[in-house]
Specification:
The chain has 3 domains: 212 residues, Rossmann fold, CATH 3.40.50; 142 residues, Argininosuccinate synthetase, chain A, domain 2 (Alpha-Beta Complex); 36 residues, no CATH class. The chain contains 13 helices and 16 strands. The strands form 4 sheets. The chain has a 5-stranded parallel β-sheet, sandwiched between helices. Strands 12-11-10-15-16 form a 5-stranded antiparallel β-sheet, with helices on one face. The N and C termini lie far apart (62 Å).
């Protein structure tokens, strides 16, 4: 097969506009069509006429300005949709729907993605112990995949061929959204014929209007049109922006752009209690797992008395309960400077109480059911998989391979872990599994005979495992001896 038969064929079309003023340039669309030999050829083309677009819409400043601009100034037909991924304010979904119609959307869809987010994305990432740069639990990254996929469903339902998002050209979300759309369009079950992508923050016509000043200019633009927008700061500038779902809430923005300054006092925790103000009495969460999936959470006091009705079976309810109990004790705060996919350093403050609790419990339970090599392999693979998730690679072959491997790896992760929650800490203190590799007799220093391990055989084991070290040390010293010249 020839490479030029399947590579993207790039072309520009200005649709009657002056050169360089097309709405999307060559990045506008991804359309699959037959190529010689039956191969699929990915055809990129520009959005040359005003078409029906689906826009991810939250009702916030950015999406409100983009929707208004697309409808009122550019003449688009826009279908808006909001993903329910577990935001705190239940009325925010209704407010977004009402606002989008007021701003000119032809219709609005609210899609409940909470179960998809947890079962298809959160649980596997937790099982992988994925943490970006060893710290960030990827709450935003994971939520983008079901959201992007849902946009395609909405587009098919409303016969739209253009997908649009409000992510900037500096961040990671642009990659997650657009990669998902391009890749899933190769799946006949997800495909949108003639799919095109419109990303305003990468278009000159939009940047000319809003690029110099960003959110401040957007706020002024909406105010000039008499459109109300919630104010979050002084002189029309938000001190920080937040993104929330069931897994976490992230805070970024002007107030946090000096990493040498503490975030304390600059943001208000919304998903957890300030650890300094948390109760001065520990609680314990006993988390039960079946095949590596959390299936029950039980809250106990210091005496082991169950203090609330256990939550079991429903993954959404279990994560909600984990968020509540861990958040009550100030668990899951992270302030870090991370490396975006495009290479830019970015500071964020994250609150992920439930995710932190469930991950601690899961990792603790794996300690008794996996042997050392499996644990070491997971430790080496986790940062690679975390970076893959962060960089938009959920649909890659590498991720599919990892997901398939989890089926076998998690088969024996059954049992429970007991986690102590106290003023910002989540500390596993006990665990049990029917598949445990822990043998008290083998492990005990009090019993030296009558077990499968004969202490006398330890001599030979030590001699053999030390042989290569001895040989290397001898060679190192011999290398210092001058070579005799004949």
């Amino acid at each position: 097969m020839r490479w030029d038969a399947v590579r993207p064929r790039l072309r520009r079309s200005t649709g009657g506009r002056p050169a360089g003023r097309s709405l999307t340039g060559w990045r506008g669309a991804a359309q699959l069509r037959s190529a010689p030999g039956g191969d699929a050829s990915l055809q990129f083309s520009a959005v040359t006429t005003k078409k029906r677009a689906v826009l991810a819409f939250s009702g916030g400043l950015d999406s409100s300005a983009i929707l208004t601009w697309m409808v009122r100034e550019q003449g688009w037909e826009v279908v808006t949709f909001t993903a329910n991924v577990g935001q705190r304010a239940s009325d925010s979904l209704d407010a977004a729907a009402k606002k989008s119609r007021e701003l000119g959307a032809i219709t609005h869809e609210s899609v409940d993605l909470r179960r998809e987010l947890i079962d298809e994305f959160f649980v596997p990432a937790m099982q992988m112990h994925a943490k970006l740069e060893g710290r960030y639990l990827l709450g935003t990254s994971l939520a983008r995949y079901p959201t992007a996929r849902a946009a395609m469903r909405v587009a098919r339902k409303h016969r739209a061929t253009v997908l649009s998002h409000g992510a900037t050209g500096k961040g990671n979300d642009q990659v997650r959204f657009e990669t998902t759309w391009l890749v899933l369009n190769a799946d006949p079950a997800e495909r949108i014929d003639g799919l095109e992508i419109f990303a305003p923050w990468k278009e000159k016509i939009f940047l000319d209007r809003f690029g110099n000043g960003g959110r401040v200019v957007m706020r002024q633009y909406l105010q000039s049109m008499g459109i109300p927008i919630a104010s979050g700061g002084n002189e029309g500038e938000d001190p920080y922006s937040q993104d929330e779902n069931m897994l976490h809430i992230s805070s970024e923005g002007v107030a946090l752009e000096r990493p040498e300054e503490s975030h304390i006092g600059k943001i208000v925790y919304t998903k957890l209690t300030d650890p300094a103000m948390a109760p001065d009495r520990a609680e314990y969460a006993r988390v039960f797992f079946e095949r590596g999936r959390p299936v029950k959470i039980q809250i106990e006091d210091e005496n082991g008395v169950v203090t609330a009705r256990p939550i079991e079976g429903d993954s959404v309810a279990i994560l909600k309960a984990a968020n509540e109990v861990a958040g009550r004790h100030g668990v899951g705060i992270l302030d870090m400077v991370e490396t975006r996919y495009v290479g830019i350093k970015s500071r964020g403050v994250y609150e992920a109480p439930g995710h932190t609790l469930l991950l601690e419990a899961h990792q603790d339970l794996e300690g008794v059911v996996h042997d050392g090599p499996v644990i070491d392999e997971k430790l080496s693979q986790a940062p690679l998989l975390a970076r893959l998730i962060y960089n938009g690679g959920w649909w890659s072959q590498q991720m599919r391979k990892a997901l398939a491997g989890l089926q076998e790896e998690q088969r024996h992760v059954n049992g429970w872990s007991l986690v102590r929650l106290y003023r910002g800490s989540a500390t596993p203190v006990a665990r049990w599994s029917p598949n445990s590799l822990y043998d008290p007799q083998l492990s005990s220093f009090e019993s030296m005979t009558g077990t499968a391990l004969d202490p006398e055989k330890a001599r030979g084991f030590i001699d053999v495992q030390a042989l290569h070290l001895w040989a290397a040390e001898r060679a190192r010293h011999q290398a210092r001896t001058p070579v005799a010249r004949g």
